[in-house]
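Budget justification note: compute hours in this period were largely spent on complex prediction jobs such as the one shown. Inputs:
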Amino acid sequence: MQIIVTDQDGKVHELEALEGWRVMEVIRDWGLNIKAECGGACSCATCHVFVDPEWQGRLEPPSDEEEDRLDSAPDVGPTSRLSCQILMTEDLDGLKVTLAQSARQDEAA
Amino acid sequence: MSETEFTTDVVIIGAGPVGLFAVFELGLVDLKCHVIDILDRPGGQCAELYPEKPIYDIPAFPVVTGQELTDNLMAQIAPFGAEFHYSRMVTRLEKQDDGTFVVETDAGETFHSKVVVIAAGGGSFQPKRPPVPGIEQYENTSVFYAVRKMEDFRDQDVVIVGGGDSALDWTLNLEPLVRSLTLVHRRDEFRGHADSVNKMRALVADGKINFVMGQLGRLEGEGGQLREVFLNTAAGEMGVPATRLLPFFGLTMKLGPVADWGLDLHENALVKVDTEKFQTSVPGIFAIGDINWYPGKLKLILSGFHEGALMAQAAKRIVHPDEKVIFQYTTSSTKLQKKLGVA
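Corresponding output:
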């Protein structure tokens, strides 16, 4: 199972993913530039990604809590999600996401 | 005038759970502490990021929230009378020739201590900076992340961005002063108090302020003086006159001045320590909790508590080198129980 992640510099990475892992955890485990400072508690919005439009409708929709938390990401777009709230399943094999600038470790923000 | 010079055994930088429990362990060995934190209250990440979230891996607490953990720690360390200094950042830490330390804050205080404990978690909580090109050049002249003096906003064209209580409160408070005010938020739903939302909507309905659903796009101005803010909206780019911009996207942790204190770092982000004393590369400066690194490190509150206990033994030997340290249990030692105020 794989996810395809474009980082903040435009580089594309194909990352091996495991069922039951959060997409944030996969990205962090492979050492890409993601801050994820609350560790997956839907409390900080520093794991913000843009989901590829063709994948957007195939994800579980965001909870109210995730929508609220997205308010504290300064660069939200129409397909924004918090990657800690997307759980890997077989159905998401091949998921494409792009890391937001606001997810950077150095200047999350 | 408030006091600005302090002398103490130990300065603890960070009032998160690990910094708080360090007060307990240091207190048991008779060391007095001053605790400094950038937030306006204790708890660190537990208070700022997840006060209402359940934590399941604190021993003997099947479940506890970040706020409950903080409250319990504050109760547990109360007997030791630590002094707390909130809403300030430590800007300077320097070892003196006599082996003691000088710690300075951005509030103008100076602390003299024999030991310093860095329990700063992920660094200091600072406002999130929107990733808008060139925003730095306007900071502190036209772009502010907090309102310190309302007068600075009188007769200005103000743009406030955000959907929480800070954005709403400052919209309501500044509206009577400003020349124009535009509130910008990514959606037509607000997380703030319902009462503030209603008041804000009434001001929009009366034509006193503008609300734009959109995002910050780019800034225009020169010499640090902002002139116009361009917003990305569903209808395309939209220019709004702006001489003041207030982005409110909450806080994020930044390592900050810790990187400048001459300590050996791991990957430029964490403070290297040994696992006997949790001492840094500078003797007398310890680092415990999420901010430190050693082989096998796990960022758990549990680990930070353990690190604090061992650190306290080493700190005791520095502060009272001639005293014999006897290892005792709180359950059986009358001496320790007296310190805790229970015997």
